[in-house]
Design goal:
Shape: globular
Number of helices: 8
Structural class: alpha/beta
Oligomer: single chain
Strand order of the largest sheet: 7-6-5-4-3-2-1-8
Radius of gyration: 17 Å
Bound molecules: pyridoxal-5'-phosphate
Distance between the termini: 55 Å
Order of helices and strands: EHEHEHEHEHEHEHEH
Length: 212
């Protein structure tokens, strides 16, 4: 049987109207990168949207994100014990627990990309499992280097390693990988959740950055 994957529509920089249009034809999973932007959109949109936070999350914004997005489905970018502790502490006492997370893996060894190294993921996984009762690790996430599909193989082998170490079935952990340019290849490699933006919503216009 062919592998199937969930579609997460990445709506960063796009207006809530665009999200509504997709919602109206049945799409429920949406991804956002910036805390201020998701906080502005959430109250404008239906509460049964499943939001994925896919940007880098700074510790000092954890509380805002948790409180401002009651329908946060998953934080895809957990990449340190410190952030795990901060999230766990913030979630303590809330009724919505546990919060789903993916561990973000840097599969391309580029210093500019966030995520933990493949070698370190099993340690982070066990740390969260043992110390953070209000977090549930749903799976692994990677961005990867554009055009380098070996990044997907790396994420697949990370999952195998964790499942062996923790006594889990492979199907117990999701893989979030694949974007507009490579989602088909990612699904072939075993992705269970693809994050697709520009080919759905059109190219993004970023604010102009002036360089002195
Ligand atoms: C922007 C973004 C995407 C979507 O990228 P497209 O190339 O527009 O599909 C996916 N994942 C992450 C982490 C992103 O920041």
């Amino acid at each position: 049987m062919a592998n199937t994957a969930r579609l997460v529509a990445v709506s960063k920089t796009k207006p809530s109207n665009d999200i509504s249009a997709l919602y109206d034809i049945g799409q429920r999973h949406f991804g956002e990168n910036y805390v201020q932007e998701i906080l502005a959109k959430v109250p404008e949109l239906p509460s049964d949207i499943n939001w994925h936070f896919i940007g880098h999350l700074q510790s000092q914004k954890v509380k805002q994100l948790i409180e401002g997005v009651p329908n946060l489905y998953v934080l895809e970018t957990l990449d340190s014990k410190k952030l795990a502790d901060k999230l766990n502490k913030t979630l303590q006492g809330l009724e919505r627990n546990p919060l789903n997370v993916y561990l973000q893996v840097n599969t391309s060894d580029e210093d500019s990309k966030s995520g933990v190294s493949a070698d370190y993921v099993p340690e982070l996984f066990l740390y969260v499992k043992e110390n953070c009762p209000y977090l549930k690790v749903l799976g692994l996430m990677t961005i990867g280097a554009p055009g380098d599909i070996s990044c997907f193989d790396k994420l697949v082998s990370c999952r195998r390693e964790i499942c062996e170490a923790a006594g889990l079935d492979i199907n117990d952990l999701e893989l979030s990988m694949g974007m507009s340019g490579d989602f088909e290849e990612a699904i072939r490699k075993g992705s269970t959740s693809v994050r697709v933006g520009s080919i759905i919503f059109g190219a993004r216009q970023y604010p102009t950055i002036s360089v002195a």
